[in-house]
Amino acid sequence: MSASEAARGPTSTGASVSALPGPGGPDLPLPRVHRGKVRELYDAGDGFLLMVASDRVSAFDVVLPQPIPRKGEVLTLLTAWWMKKLGGVVPHHLVSARPEEILERLPQLADVPRADWARRSLLVRRTRPLPIECVVRGYLAGSAWAEYRKSGTLAGETLPAGLTQSQKLPVPIFSPATKATEGHDENITFQEVCRRVGTARAERLRKLSHQIYAFGRDTASARGILLADTKFEFGELEGGELLLIDEVLTPDSSRYWPKEGWRPGGTPPSLDKQPIRDWLDALPDWDRSPPPPDLTPGVVDATTKRYREVFMRLTGVELSKYEPPSFDSPSRSPSGSRA
Ligand SMILES: Nc1ncnc2c1ncn2[C@@H]1O[C@H](COP(=O)(O)OP(=O)(O)O)[C@@H](O)[C@H]1O
Ligand SMILES: [Mg+2]
Fold this sequence. Notes:
This protein has two domains: about 160 residues, Phosphorylase Kinase, domain 1 (2-Layer Sandwich); about 130 residues, D-amino Acid Aminotransferase, Chain A, domain 1 (2-Layer Sandwich), CATH 3.30.470.20. Strands 8, 9, 12, 13, 14, 15 and 16 form a seven-stranded antiparallel beta sheet that branches. The protein is an alpha+beta fold. A hairpin with a 2-residue loop joins strand 2 and strand 3. The protein binds adenosine-5'-diphosphate and magnesium ion.
């Protein structure tokens, strides 16, 4: 059985994933405008997009052959949960996460199996995405730790000497990266962001990113979770209005550590695809280039559990019981802004 066939077979959870967009993804009866590592974007007409999160999982920038059941649902509904809370912090792209509202706008979905789109789709406003990954870091981990260890800097700025891995930074740091269409994102300096999008826009991106990070950090902290770092994307409407887009504060875009597992000087376990990374790291002969190995049912199950756990810990609601919130329709507010 090939890897992609395996991806469509039953998992050890007993749930058949045949209808879910595993590697490959479903074809919705809408014009597809983008296919990312995890999400598919469809044109929903009138300046809207349908952003559909698959159950695909990537590690070390390679999409793995097995889907992670419920992962797309977690990413989608957690983004909706955060965007509802962020309404007063930053204007964002989300119009609806509710299947019934989405169906009203896109009646052609009535004939599509609900598992292919419901609770994994967001109706959003179509923007022109800015080509910058707006990363904010509160702790020294991942590529930031690598840069610091090598040159004592983060995003090109010098940090105090003697910091250890996973240590809390004196203040959160905006550490942008390019949005690579192929391969790895590359960390860049703030000056480079200014060069790419203009100084005024760059300053606004940095300010908003800090505000969203602080909100996310404080919210997660109250639930016993540290937000080590996270990545935002922004896009512009025709008139130039800047919106927070994409997913936000999900385990795929953020490094979340349970407080009880954190201590400086090592790598704390994180609330995401950690079981996959650990398992891949322990494989003797995969060099991190495609094709990736097949995940075992045990690793798939552990990862599903991890995603459901972070959803539950943050929202306080079990995934299956969660009903997405409603948002103001942008057509009802005069400027289209919900800030
Ligand atoms: N409101 C929006 N308008 C336009 N593009 C968006 C919007 N929200 C998200 N996107 C884009 O949709 C894509 C999401 O798919 P994803 O699988 O995360 O892709 P990637 O592999 O590029 O991260 C990203 O390229 C993101 O920039
Ligand atoms: Mg993405």
